[in-house]
Amino acid sequence: MNHRKMIFILMGMLCLYCMVAGFRTHTSGPPTKASLGEKLFFEKELSQDNTLACASCHIPQFGFADTLAFSKGINGTPTRRNTPGITNLSGRPSYFWDGRAATLEDQALQPIINPAEMGLPIHEAINRLNNNPIYQQLFKQVFNDTVNTKNLLQAIAAYERTLETANSPYDRYINGDDNALTPSAIRGRMLFIGKANCNNCHSGEDFTADRFKNIGLFNGKQLNDAGRFEITHDSSQIGFFKVPSLRNVAVTAPYMHNGMFHTLKEVLHYYNNPDSVLPGGIHRDLSLNKPLQLSESELNDLEAFLIALTDDRFIIHRKP
């Protein structure tokens, strides 16, 4: 390997380290719930065979999402749905694609005990941590208690609440820096709130209305995940899935609950004319029944705006 190539590799590794370190909860004093939760988030002892941690699928440099359509659980078992990013989750009213968890603590439990994911019964997880001298000390310092289910989940959730991002070109633009967005991204923003009608679902500070929508990815055949219906048993919600935040969306591919779209451009082409990509979606939201008739240039502008929602901590993964 020549000298110049080695330098580029080392520089890339340094950039990656610095970017990931941007999410670390640095504490110079006693441990906190969040710093303990961070350690647990990267702890493989919380999986049945000691091979996986929460961070194995929620990869920091990719917006705490995965790069696979379906993550690999223990024994290489694929998960049922795509792993979503978990930045900007504080204050959300529900979690998971089907909204089955009401709190971050509830959410933190599910991957640990799910047989297709980390596959570890919670009582065994508690026993392992209580038998670990390092965790014995940390839980004593933070909770003045031994490890139990409640304080384990509180710690992980506390760390997840630190994963807030609000330092993107878009944020600087709305805070008064007129040069923070490219002309293309500025045009894309106007399309987002106008002709493309994206903010009908992706609204608010984090670009999600925290609602459930059927966007046409259920046809009862090869696409047969009923989504929210499995939780509510309300037939009107067949094919409904939670509207995700669009913050950092440029680094969280592939997209949708089934990871069927590999790029943002594929997603935009689908919304532009769903029937041309996937006809036959059952009970698709009426707002998607009429093609948007966006030109390729307009789709490029929309993509530029979505990329501009990426926090600077992910900059090395952004498109030029």
SS class: mainly alpha
Q: How much beta, percentage-wise?
A: under 5%
**How does the major sheet shape up?**
2 strands, antiparallel
Helix tally?
A: 13
Parts with pLDDT < 50 across at least 5 consecutive residues: 4-12
Residue share in helix: 25-40%
Taking all Cα atoms into account, the compactness measure Rg is: 21 Å
Shape: globular
Element pattern in H and E: HHHHHHHHHEHEHHH
What kind of assembly state do the chains in view correspond to?
single chain
What is the total tally of β strands? Answer: 2
> What gap, in angstroms, lies between the N and C termini?
27 Å
- As laid out across the biggest beta sheet, the strand order is 1-2
Average of pLDDT:
92
Q: Could you explain the architecture of this structure?
A:
The chain is an all-alpha fold. The chain contains 13 helices and two strands, in the order αααααααααβαβααα. The chain has helices at residues 3-21, 33-41, 54-57, 104-113, 122-130, 133-143, 149-160, 169-174, 183-193, 229-232, 264-272, 274-277, 296-307; strands at residues 212-213, 241-242. A two-stranded antiparallel ribbon has the order 1-2. Mean pLDDT is 92; it is low at 4-12.
Keywords:
single chain; 320 residues; mainly alpha; two-stranded antiparallel ribbon; 13 helices; 2 strands; 38% helix
